[in-house]
Amino acid sequence: MLIIGIAGGTGSGKTTVVHQIMNELPHTEVGIIAQDSYYKETSNLSYDERTKINFDHPKSIDFELLVSHLKELKVGKTINQPVYSFITHNRTDDTISTHPRKVMIVEGILILSNPELRALFDIKIFVHADSDERLIRRLKRDIAERGRDMQEVLNRYQNTLKPMHQQFIEPTKAFADIIIPNDKYNTVAIDVVRAVINQRIL
Question: Whose CA, among 114, 116, 136, 167, lies 20 to 30 Å from 71?
């Protein structure tokens, strides 16, 4: 099994890169695990308390479960991936049955910040995008998909997202094997990643 970690700041275009890589590969041989599914279970907190959680801090992620799930997949076991709701800021009762694949892609802003998880990745990718571009994408997404208003998103960006990015996300670029600029010039980097994958799964 080839495990690829794809990190980068919020709104950097990680999902786009994942799709670009997957488009050329047989879908039956590639699986995806999203870090966002592994935010910690917070039923012990009230809704108001949950809204104040710093979701851009490594402590908000259940890395222990994510690492154990990856290890299980590696030995051929099927896992039940949690489902997280950004509306309620908590895990739902649903899970996604995820089967082992020749290639597993793990994507998320903080995945390179955890040494144990990092050690499981065969290829570590960091998607880089300009901070203004990331803010614009985050604004559009949170308003359209997560029911936030503009002021709420801007406040969170200024007070949480930006400082957390500088403290925990940007430094993990140093661990990346490949840094992909998220613009029209990233096709070469994507092709390199695809070539490595194809070599491993053929």
Answer: 167
